[in-house]
Amino acid sequence: MRTIKILVLICIFSNGCRSQQGPEITFSFEVKSEEITSVTISKYNYDLEKMVEWKSLDNLIPQKTYQTTDEFLEPSIYALKLNTGKGIKIAVEQGGMVHIKMEDGIKLESKIASNLDFNKSIENLNNQFFAGMIQDFDKAMKENNQQRIAELEKEKDKVLLQFIRSMENLVMQMGPSAKAYDALGYFDLNKNSDFFEEMMTRFEAEYPSSGMSKSLKVRINKAAQLAIGSKMTNFKATNKEGVLVNLSDYEGSYILVDFWASWCRPCRVENPKLLELYKSFEGVKFEIIGISIDSDRGVWEKAIQKDGIVWNQILDKDQTIYKQYLLSSLPANFLLDQEGRIIAKNITAEELKTKLETFE
């Protein structure tokens, strides 16, 4: 009897008689359509900073409910994709039940999870701040009204600050969470580093050893490598003519690495100004490398022809180079000195002209 009592005490105080388990997330999938036969669940890996397939539920039968569980270690991001092609991304902030109805699409019913739709918030803000201005820009560009374009550029710069502050406020209201982590991916670290660091501090206070906090720290450290005075990391890619372009080959010249796209109005406004500068400073060791993130090669080539671009152009269709430099917005550029060090970022054609005049 004494031995049994001792064993009971050991079990109570050391948990030695059962396996330790943390809270769980239980996904409950309710199938409401015959067309839905499988759902693939991917989970965001904070170390790899990408989605990784986690589990697949196959041979689903209509009017049945299927469950699967995952250990909850910290707020997490999941992507759910049906065999029909439809899918959603969700943030799960704590352990518990996540109920999902699968009919025409995917409907989330949960108090501990939410849809990740920050892109819709950005679209709403974009319409709120820029809808009328976009039409004015298009009209001015079509008429080649440079005076009106210049006026709109100044107005755009003021409105852009309000737009960014509104984005920041939305994320601040989310607090440290998987949803906020996802939303931070829409911010350009080269342009919003102060806000990013402020949010990272809040994450570290709430979740000090989490994958989220560590991931944000890694991003900030990477951004520090793109600070003024740092040597820009190299890239290699083929240009429009199929010739290999190697950034390091341009050392000895001042280089503007210019990221753009055919659909980016501010980029298209800058192109004629850059062309004028490029021709004006032919005697200076100055080059431009244009990198477009267009998805359609034909549209990209048409924009090059229309804007009269004569410098090297690279199509970064899968955004490999774009992401290498932690970019998430356009226009964006880096001005490098003759040793390949960053001496300016996100400068206008007017600011570039002032810089070039000092190089002569």
UniProtKB/TrEMBL annotation:
<dbReference type="InterPro" id="IPR000866">
    <property type="entry name" value="AhpC/TSA"/>
</dbReference>
<feature type="domain" description="Thioredoxin">
    <location>
        <begin position="226"/>
        <end position="360"/>
    </location>
</feature>
<dbReference type="GO" id="GO:0016491">
    <property type="term" value="F:oxidoreductase activity"/>
</dbReference>
<dbReference type="GO" id="GO:0016209">
    <property type="term" value="F:antioxidant activity"/>
</dbReference>
<dbReference type="Pfam" id="PF00578">
    <property type="entry name" value="AhpC-TSA"/>
</dbReference>
<dbReference type="InterPro" id="IPR036249">
    <property type="entry name" value="Thioredoxin-like_sf"/>
</dbReference>
<keyword id="KW-0676">Redox-active center</keyword>
<dbReference type="InterPro" id="IPR050553">
    <property type="entry name" value="Thioredoxin_ResA/DsbE_sf"/>
</dbReference>
<keyword id="KW-1015">Disulfide bond</keyword>
<protein>
    <submittedName>
        <fullName>TlpA family protein disulfide reductase</fullName>
    </submittedName>
</protein>
<dbReference type="GO" id="GO:0017004">
    <property type="term" value="P:cytochrome complex assembly"/>
</dbReference>
<keyword id="KW-0201">Cytochrome c-type biogenesis</keyword>
<dbReference type="GO" id="GO:0030313">
    <property type="term" value="C:cell envelope"/>
</dbReference>
<dbReference type="InterPro" id="IPR013766">
    <property type="entry name" value="Thioredoxin_domain"/>
</dbReference>
